[in-house]
Amino acid sequence: MQPVPWILALVLHGAAPAPGLPAGEPFVVEEDPAEVLVGAYKDALKGWKQDYRLAFGREERAALDERHPAVSFLPRFVTAGEAGDGSALLWATRLADDARLAEDERKGLKHGAYTRLVAEFGNSPWFREVVVAVDEDREDLGVDVAADLLEHVAEHGATAALKAEALWRWGGLLIDTEQPARRAAGLAIWERLFAEHPRTVQSARARAEYDLEKHLGIGSVARDFEATDLQGRAFRLSDYRGKVVVLDFWGFWCPACRRSLPHLARLVERHADEPFALLGVNSDTDLESVRSQVKGQHVTWRNAFDGGPKGPLSRAWRVRSFPTVYVLDHEGRIRARNIHGEDLDRKVAELLAEL
User: Fold this and answer.
1) Residue 42 contacts by C-beta under 8 Å, 6 or more apart in sequence?
2) What is the full DSSP assignment across 205-239?
3) CA 53 to CA 88: how far, in whole Å?
4) 108 lies in some domain
5) Residue 192, Cβ density class (10 Å: 0-12 exposed, 13-18 middle, ≥19 buried)
6) Confidence of residue 31 (pLDDT cuts 50, 70, 90)
7) Looking at residues 340-353, what average pLDDT do you find?
8) C-alpha angle 313/319/325, rounded to 5°?
9) What would the DSSP string read from start to end of 144-190?
10) Would you say 175 and 216 are in contact if contact means Cβ atoms under 8 Å apart?
11) Strand segments (E) across 7-158
12) Alpha-carbon distance 299 to 279, whole Å?
């Protein structure tokens, strides 16, 4: 927080104190410690991103990944959070993805942080960010934990707006699991949202997505779309009929997406001579930056450019967290959603064996 100009003038030129201040006593502007810490982190991150853009080759970028500002700042945010600063605790969950933690450490930190945030900071003006973050971190938290946290807010949220947000995300979380019983429970939660909070933005979004489930559910024929790839060439999803297709909604801004790239590259290489295609839908905002980074990361598969996390394709395919993955069979039917790693490998192999 910067001092206002007249305060700065007093400091620099020794002018008379403002009315009501005793002569000779300095005017002190108190700064929020968390705000100062966030500002310092953002400054460090800005410099790091500039270095990353100028880095040459994978080795330099790998070295920079090791020196990401999150590595040194995360302990400071955690310490502030443990001392009772909820906003610092929320920032710790954001930094955890880039802080080079082991998987169990990253997941443990997020689990503990979100549990405390939901239990103790529900009245904070920034608490909606916690609800959003719980949903977006569903992979690290696990569906059961994330659902329990969202259910708590839906039942005990400080405001109707928070309850509506939690109901929308809780229902969507269960629908995305693709398990019939959970999908049914998720749709029922959305029906509750329609009844209890009918005039909210969340209710309107859920109504639109409720209808989209007819086209995005397992077994549905995926809606066709036309897009432009990173080289400016137009293509349609239907161009790939006859092939097993993995449709990956991702972005370089997303740490989990970046971590998945080597695995996806191996998947493409493994099925190079088979009727298989990996199509990316990139959600970054700077096309030239994406083109540059794609080369550095050896992303060889075709990518549509969606212009941001809320681009038209992401909205049409009900993407609320990244990465989101759909697996389509050779007839264009959705056969799996939001599976990763070895589960994705097995599903692709299974569908190829059906041809």
Assistant:
1) none
2) HHHHHHHHHHHHSTTSBPPP-EEEBTTS-EEEGGG
3) 28
4) no
5) middle
6) low
7) 96
8) 95
9) HHHHHHHHHHHHH-SSHHHHHHHHHHHHHHHHHT--HHHHHHHHHHH
10) no
11) none
12) 11
Quote the Cα angle for 249-253-258, to 5°.
70
Beta bridge partners of 328: 245, 334
Residue 112 maps to a domain: no
Q: Are 179 and 297 in contact (CB under 8 A)?
A: no
Domain boundary among 168, 189, 216: 216
CA atoms of 344 and 264, how far apart (whole Å): 10
Residue 106 lies in a domain: no
**Per the confidence metrics, is the pTM higher than 0.70?**
no
How far apart CA 183 and CA 189 sit, in angstroms, is 10
3-state secondary structure of 319: coil
Which residue type is seen at 5? P
Residues 24, 70 share a domain: no
What tens digit of pLDDT does each residue of 232-249 get? 999 999 999 999 999 999
247-272 pLDDT, tens digit per residue, is 999 999 999 999 999 999 999 999 99
In the DSSP assignment, the letter for residue 344 is H
Residue 77 sits in the same domain as residue 150 = no
Amino acid type, 288: E
Tell me the residue type at 210: Y
Q: Under a CB-based contact definition with an 8 Å cutoff, are residues 135 and 172 in contact?
A: yes
In a domain, 113, yes or no: no
The CATH number of the domain where 246 resides is what? 3.40.30.10
First to last CA, the chain: 62
- Structural domain tally of the chain? 4
Read out DSSP for 42-62? Answer: HHHHHHHHHHHHH--HHHHHH
Amino acid identity at 353: A
- Tokens at 103, concatenated: 């998987």
Residue-range definition of the domain harbouring residue 170: 122-216
